UniProtKB/TrEMBL annotation:
Family: Belongs to the short-chain dehydrogenases/reductases (SDR) family.
Alphabetical UniProt keywords: Oxidoreductase
A Pfam cross-reference name: adh_short
Originating species: Sulfobacillus acidophilus (strain ATCC 700253 / DSM 10332 / NAL)
Name of the featured protein: Short-chain dehydrogenase/reductase SDR
Length: 262
C-alpha cells in the first residue's frame, strides 16, 4: 500500500485546471507536492490553499518551461531542496492551440512543442536520477486522446500527444530496471480554462459561437465533459503501488470519445 505522506510529487501546470485538481487529490491523500506554473501569484495562492486544507502540503514554484534541459533540472532541484526527496512526477503544463497543420501559425506550433513536448521531456530526464535515489517511482504524462484519434483542428496537440505516446513506451523500457514506471493519461475535452480557449478557436474556424462549439464538445458517449477531478483520481491511482504493473502505456479518460482500437 502507498504511504502517501512519504510521497513527494512534482506537478507541473499545478496552478489551475487538471494539474491543480491532481495536486489537490494528492495533498488530500497526504502527499507533499511541488506545484509549478508561470504566474507566481496564482502558484503561491494555489499552494497555500492546498496546504491549508491538508493533510499533506504544497509548495509553489514560479517557473516558465522554455524547452531546455535546465528547466527540468531547476524544478527537480527546487523540489529536492524543499522536501529532501522526489518520488513522482506529473507532467501537466501545456495548452492546445486550435489550427490545422497548414493553418496553425508557426509560432504556435513552436510554443506548444516548447511547453508540452520539450517541457515534459526535460522534466522526465531530470527526475530519473532522483527517483533512482529512492528506489523507484512513477511518472505520469497528461497527454490527450488526440494522440490516438488525430484531430485536424488540433494539429500541434495531435502531433505532440502522438509523440508522447511513443516516448512513454520507450522511456518506460529504459527505466524499468530501476523500478520506475512511465504512463500517459489521455483526457478528452475537459472542463478547464483551456477548454474555453479551444471553444473560441473552434468558433473562429467554423464561424459558430463559442457556446455552439461547447455544445459540440459536450457530445461524448457518456453525455458530459471530462472533469479535472475524474483525471486527478486516475493519476493518483497510477502513481500508487496498486498500479505497480502499469507502465509504458496510455490510459484514456474521455467519456468514450476515442474511436480507434482500444
Ligand atoms: N482541457 C482539455 O480539454 C484537455 C484535453 C486533453 C489534454 N489536455 C492537456 O492537459 C494539460 C493541462 O491542461 P488544462 O486543461 O488543465 O489547462 P489549463 O487550465 O490552461 O492549465 C495549464 C497549466 O499549465 C501552466 N503553464 C502553461 N504554460 C506554462 C509554461 N510555459 N511553463 C510553466 N507552466 C505553464 C499554467 O499556468 P501559468 O499560465 O501560470 O503558467 C496552468 O497551471 C495540458 O497539457 C493539456 O494539453 C487538456
Amino acid at each position: 500500500m502507498t504511504v502517501w505522506n512519504d510521497q513527494v510529487i512534482i506537478v507541473t501546470g499545478g496552478s489551475r485546471g487538471i494539474g491543480y485538481e491532481t495536486a489537490r487529490c494528492l495533498v488530500g491523500a497526504g502527499a507533499r507536492v511541488l506545484l509549478v506554473a508561470r504566474d507566481p501569484v496564482a502558484t503561491a495562492n494555489a499552494a497555500a490553499t492546498l496546504s491549508q486544507n491538508g493533510p499533506g502540503e504544497a509548495h509553489g514554484l514560479a517557473h516558465t518551461l522554455t524547452g531546455c534541459p535546465e528547466d527540468g533540472e531547476a524544478v527537480c532541484r527546487a523540489a529536492f531542496q524543499q522536501y529532501g526527496r522526489i518520488t513522482g512526477l506529473v507532467n501537466c503544463a501545456g495548452g492546445a492551440s486550435v489550427g490545422t497543420p497548414l493553418g496553425l501559425d508557426w509560432r504556435r506550433w513552436q510554443e506548444d512543442f516548447t511547453v508540452k513536448f520539450w517541457g515534459y521531456l526535460s522534466l522526465m530526464r531530470a527526475v530519473v536520477p532522483y527517483l533512482r535515489q529512492v528506489g523507484g517511482g512513477a511518472i505520469v504524462n497528461v497527454a490527450g486522446v488526440t494522440g490516438k484519434d488525430p484531430n485536424p483542428r488540433l494539429a500541434a496537440a495531435t502531433t505532440i500527444n502522438g509523440a508522447l505516446r511513443g516516448l512513454t513506451k520507450i522511456l518506460a523500457d529504459e527505466v524499468a530496471p530501476w523500478q520506475i514506471r512511465v504512463v500517459n493519461v489521455n483526457p478528452g475535452a475537459t472542463e478547464t480554462a483551456l477548454l474555453l480557449q479551444m471553444a473560441e478557436g473552434y468558433a473562429r474556424l467554423d464561424q459558430i459561437s463559442p457556446d455552439q462549439a461547447l455544445v459540440r464538445m459536450r457530445q461524448t458517449p457518456r453525455g458530459r465533459l471530462t472533469r479535472p477531478e475524474d483525471i486527478a483520481r486516475l493519476i493518483r491511482f497510477l502513481l500508487s503501488d496498486e498500479a505497480g504493473m502499469i507502465t509504458g502505456t496510455s490510459v484514456d479518460i474521455d467519456g468514450g470519445i476515442h474511436r480507434g482500437p482500444a
